[in-house]
Write a structure and sequence with these properties.
This protein has 91 residues and is of the alpha+beta class. Helices cover 19% and strands 26% of the residues. The protein has one helix and four strands. Strand 1, helix 1 and strand 2 form a beta-alpha-beta unit.
């Protein structure tokens, strides 16, 4: 399967951990709000878990076949929204 957010077949689970109110998790919250529907549509059989806990630093975990797990901190990462086209009345 090709497409945006299409996962590899060996990926068995994705977990996002972050704080529901803190500023350092803001980019993660924005990303999930915007990208979750596309991720789930392109990967209907892969569990995508979202865990919120007060004071938690944003982090992502990926579990693969045979129990292999990788994680990465999302602290300090930014989620840049694609700018929307502006209406130009002079065109």
């Amino acid at each position: 399967m090709s497409g945006k957010y299409a996962f590899t077949q060996t990926l068995k689970e994705v977990r996002f951990l972050f704080c529901q109110t803190s500023e350092h998790s803001g980019a993660t919250r924005s990303f999930i709000q915007r990208a979750y529907p596309t991720m789930k549509k392109n990967n209907p059989h892969t569990p995508i878990m979202i865990r919120e806990a007060a004071g938690t630093q944003p982090r992502i975990y990926a579990r693969y076949e045979y129990g292999q797990e990788k994680s990465e901190s999302l602290a300090g990462k930014s989620y840049r929204l694609t700018p929307r086209p502006q209406f130009n009345p002079n065109i």
